[in-house]
Backbone:
């Protein structure tokens, strides 16, 4: 029996069909519904933020989401749940550098629920771990990190032609593939999604950041749903080090503000688990 208390469902307005959660996850989370998008995958994002909007302390050893959530077990459980549903998990090179020992699997997020996550993937017909997608325009990544060397997960590095050449010069681990996008500048979200779908058939693609990547997905109208954990912490900013918010590199308001529709609210103690839907680009 799980030591975690179930999330308290304060509001549930999600549309779509119930996913076949095994009993343990259904008890903890409640219903999880995912709308279908004929002809394309559902694109969802997951982030944790402080009350004052900080998503990373940007301090060596404390740049990931754990210090933001306070290592909250419900946040880890939810992170694992979304990864268990996903066919691919997309992160930027900055996120990889922030948590270099990480692998973007459900079991790595919350090992206590590894069996339940695997049951969910089996129910969904997903035999393998989700494709771990690393986005890097320059190809500036460390191929000795566990995500590449462990063999636990299939990895796709989406980069530019120049970045692919830089990575290829160093040799690739067997589980890692390269998708080179023509050009040398910033990678567009449509190009990233095309590369992911070409490499791995995907019904659900999960975006875990960082803020630059999340900003690009918002800017291109490519994000369907955002799962946002609101942690009861005030981190503060004093200008000595950048402490980014959910989005970086893009400005929407006041010219073109992006408004989400509240889909669900859950609570565990003083942590809130929010889900917002966003209208896709025309």
Residues:
């Amino acid at each position: 029996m799980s030591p975690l208390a179930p999330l308290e469902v304060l509001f549930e307005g999600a549309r779509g069909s119930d996913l076949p959660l095994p009993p343990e996850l259904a008890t903890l989370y409640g219903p999880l519904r995912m709308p279908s998008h004929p002809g394309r995958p559902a694109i969802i994002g997951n982030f944790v933020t402080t009350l004052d909007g900080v998503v990373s302390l940007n301090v060596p050893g404390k740049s990931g989401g754990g210090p933001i959530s306070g290592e909250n077990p419900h946040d880890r459980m939810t992170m694992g749940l979304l990864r268990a549903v996903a066919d691919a998990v997309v992160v930027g090179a900055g996120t990889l550098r922030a948590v270099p020992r990480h692998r973007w699997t459900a079991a790595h997020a919350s090992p206590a629920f590894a069996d339940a996550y695997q049951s969910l993937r089996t129910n969904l017909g997903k035999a393998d771990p989700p494709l771990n997608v690393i986005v890097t325009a320059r190809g500036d990544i460390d191929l000795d990190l566990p995500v590449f060397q462990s063999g636990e997960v299939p990895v796709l590095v989406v980069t530019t032609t120049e970045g692919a050449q830089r990575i290829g010069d160093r040799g690739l681990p067997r589980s890692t593939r390269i998708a080179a996008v023509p050009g040398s500048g910033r990678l567009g979200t449509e190009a990233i999604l095309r590369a992911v779908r070409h490499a791995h058939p995907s019904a659900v693609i999960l975006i875990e950041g960082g803020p630059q990547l999340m900003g690009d997905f918002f800017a291109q109208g490519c994000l369907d749903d955002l799962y946002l954990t609101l942690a009861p912490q005030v981190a503060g900013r004093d200008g000595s080090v950048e402490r980014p918010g959910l989005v970086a590199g893009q400005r929407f308001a006041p010219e073109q503000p992006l408004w989400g529709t509240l889909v669900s609210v859950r609570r565990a103690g003083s942590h809130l688990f929010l889900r917002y839907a966003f209208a896709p680009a025309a």
Summary: The mean pLDDT is 94.
